[in-house]
Amino acid sequence: MLVIGLDCAPPELVFEQWRDELPNFKRVMDHGAWGKLESCIPAITVPAWSSMMSSKDPGTLGFYGFRNRGDYSYEKNTLANSNSVKTDRVWDVLSRAGKKVITVGVPQTYPPKPVNGIQVGCFLTPSTKNPERPYTYPASVMQEIESIVGEYLVDVPNFRTDDKDYLLRQIYSMTEKRLKLVKKWIAEKDWDFFMFVEMGTDRIHHGLWKYHDPTHHKYEVHPVFNESIHNYYRYLDNEIGQILDLVDENTTVFIVSDHGAKKMDGGICVNEWLIQEGYLTLKSMPSSLTAIDKCEIDWSKTRVWGDGGYYARIFLNIEGREPQGIVKPGEVEALRDELKAKFEAIVDPDGVHIGTTVYKPREIYHEVNGVPPDLIVYFGDLFWRSVGTVGHGSIYTFENDTGPDDCNHAQFGIVIKHDPHVDEGAGGRELSGLQLMDMAPTILKQLDVPVPADMQGKAF
Q1: Cα(275)–Cα(281) distance, rounded to whole angstroms?
Q2: What tens digit of pLDDT does each residue of 322-352 get?
Q3: Domain co-membership, 236 together with 323
Q4: pTM score, two decimals?
Q5: CA–CA dist 298, 280 (Å, integer)
Q6: Residue 97, φ and ψ in degrees, nearest 5
Q7: Same domain for 299 and 231?
Q8: Integer Cα distance of 262 and 410 in angstroms
Q9: Contact in structure between 416 and 254 (CB atoms under 8 Å)
Q10: Alpha-carbon span 160 to 119, nearest angstrom
């Protein structure tokens, strides 16, 4: 089995807009099965790929994004790398079953863990040059990769940049190196399961969506950049064609993404809003844009604070839970409901309702582990991001506080499955109702390996 992962690839581009211009994607679809794949909540790289490959929701996994509260103090934040994943993912189950596995760049595989084969770390890898902290398992593979591609790029350095020429060069350089390695290993190594994830799709969407989408509020006409995403997909399609030509007629192929992409209309300054509504009190307002954790919060008068990102994480300052909590445990549910109603009523600067959705972790997850947010907020159905900094002087912003970013995530990614022993008929069969936790049991079933009873998805 070969799994081709494309971070952030949206169904609108692959299945609709460019289907006839991407002959190799089309080739997999035309006699296979394909459809939208619903992401987890939150629809973000970490935790989505781990949710997909473990068949566990983010609450069960115990992390709700790349950054998470480490405990109920106000200071401790942790980063969710592979050490945060306390459950088996597909390659662990397959390794124990004696299958040979190779994974390259799958998010949350740094630091790499022992597998029956090879694991190459992901975009969270701090350095590919430190032999004391190898980014591959086994460590000896580091030298092999260097001999094949030179300096291996796990990600685009500084992808939130105004220098779009630099960004494009780096994206192509990263993708070329990864796919050169992948093609060589597919052809030369012994494997039963091979999976890689390309981050270039995500980085190009975030960096160049305003040139791609004429409905973007910052759309610009540009002789090169207007076609940049289109050209990159055509380049990827050609590379995928070369990869498909390397696998034999006994290999099932998946092309999959963890979430989609959509234009970003703006940002809701979540902590500015909480201050304005009387939930959050600072001892003094900062004179310039300041991260909320660098502000002096008056905890004796603060009931709620929030975090920025593609979605908002809302935390209540609960008595007996937080060090200086003031919300009585008996008031928590009423406060959550009040906040939910108020967030969902938010309008844009013109007074138009933006359509925000608010989730309570205990209502959407099988279990709730780690330190969950008290609410998860999708501002404007993810057309608006959550901006955590304070000092905007408004609840609205049209600049991203963490650097240039044109797009947000969308709830649906893609899945395309081609089993050489099953002809789904001309044009392929469209799938519906799939969630990304369905991937892991499907992979295991296809490879005749028993599906663990605690997996939450269903094989398709």
Answers
A1: 6
A2: 999 999 999 999 999 999 999 999 999 999 9
A3: no
A4: 0.97
A5: 8
A6: -85, 5
A7: no
A8: 6
A9: yes
A10: 28
